[in-house]
Specification:
Blueprint (H helix, E strand, L loop, with lengths): L1 H17 L4 H8 L8 H12 L1 H18 L3 H7 L1 H4 L4 H7 L9 H13 L1
Length: 118
Amino acid sequence: MCLVFSAAIKMMSQVMDQMIVHEDNIKRNLNMTHGLIVSERVMLDLGRYIGRQNAHEVIYEDAQKAFNDGIDFLDVLLADERVTKDVDEATLREMLDPARYVGSCVQMVDDVVKKWRK
């Protein structure tokens, strides 16, 4: 099993050494959905203020409106009093920043590293 991990790590190291990161493309791709890519995060954060089920319904409706009408998700959220009565624009902008929402990635990486070290 160790040989498999060792080979995988060697291969990944080679890939990473040759990888070219185009930050402008990454940002453009993340913004293609005009904020909808992080709607889950907004729903989870909003749930702390208005309850989980209410947040689910509000974000579902607002996401549908943004998508169907071709409106930026932030603009829809800012126009929704159910959202703005508890959350200000600066907080919404933070919630909508994909760079601030990595979900469980950090824990997953830590788990893999821990297993590999054993």
